[in-house]
Amino acid sequence: MREESFGDLLRSWRQRRRVSQLDLGIEAEVSARHISFLETGRARPSRDMVMKLSEELEVPLRHRNRMLIAAGYAPVFRERGVGSPEMGIVREAIDRILAAHNPYPAVVVDVAWDLVAANAAAEAFFGGIAPELKGERPNVLRMTLHPEGMAANLVNLAEVRAHLVHRLRRHAESSGEPRLAELLEELMSYEYPGVELNVAHVPGPGDILLPLRVRVGERVLSMFTTIATFGSPLDVTVSELAIETLWPADAETAAAFR
């Protein structure tokens, strides 16, 4: 099997971002001819050029390391575990955000939507799903859309599924993360007897956000989500973390959580 070259990776990310050689050259302040030479292997990039081009193409840090290695340089972005001593300030920020969001659910996920951390409200929120979906590293999208997960109680399953599948597909395309493509294929294979999935959501006159409407006993809880990431990360792990918080979409849901 041929080793991946810097030129192949550069071309792949340029095409993924739908950027021409001319446009990339303008942004990176080099000629389109030089970009072409880099992609064909006729020119070898400096380390600074690898860093600049990957920055302009918004290549994820994990893949920037791959581009550096392919160009003959050592990777520069470390990948520390969340539990490592150097990550203390990150853990403190996560813990504060999760705790402050109680009594509403909040979770931290990695690039593949595997659960990294959750607050007490989220643990209770996911408490009723099948135990086999909550293994050593539960996946939030799997727990949400699996027929034996939250999907069994989602009142607006078709709309929520369509939104999450679309978001995951875009995330898989933009990140180049193979685990996301595998997860997307799995989610698309789920079957929901009696549920019409090919129904477009038409907003009503009072709609502002697409809510997640979950039946819990006699109640239907209605929530929307926000997602936050760390600004200017220089660590692979930190760059791939996202904090998703759920908020009540109506007064009844807020009162139920309180």
TrEMBL record:
**Which PANTHER family does this UniProt record tie to the protein?**
BLL4672 PROTEIN-RELATED (PTHR35010), BLL5781 PROTEIN (PTHR35010:SF4)
Name this protein carries in UniProt: Helix-turn-helix transcriptional regulator
| HTH cro/C1-type domain: residues covered | 10-64
Query: Mind telling me which SMART domains this protein's record contains?
Result: HTH_XRE
A Pfam family of this chain: HTH_31
Please give the InterPro entries that the UniProt record associates with this protein. Answer: Cro/C1-type_HTH, Lambda_DNA-bd_dom_sf, MLTR_LBD
Family matches, as CDD domains? HTH_XRE
